[in-house]
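Reply to dn_fold:

You asked what the input looked like. This is it:
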Amino acid sequence: MFSHITLGTNDLDRAAGFYRPVMATLGLSEPFAMAGTVVFGELAGPKLFVVAPFDGGPASHGNGTHAAFIAPDRAAVDAFHAAALAHGGSDEGAPGLRPHYHQNYYAAYVRDPDGNKLQAVCHRAQATEP
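and this is what came back:
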């Protein structure tokens, strides 16, 4: 559905220190290196770019805007939230069901150190124990 999402940062080293462990909880790695950019996703698929704005101005976040990432299970949503808080992010909504979206919508919301709002979401029903 999309090629990539680009989020601005005012401190690339700080952003890399935040995004690397947070994206790892969702199984997202860096498919290639690019100067002045941290990239996560698939080489020939959707990607997240974290960069200093190209116009040289300060990065800012949008109100009402966020990037949502698919999590393979609810444990990954929990890990995403915990990793974000441990690496300089802030809470915007603890992990939990949001049944107003649908009965299995399990999500967590955070802000990165630059204020960008992020979400991890699992659409699957909770696995049951055998």
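The longest helix spans residues 12-24.
Hope that clears it up.
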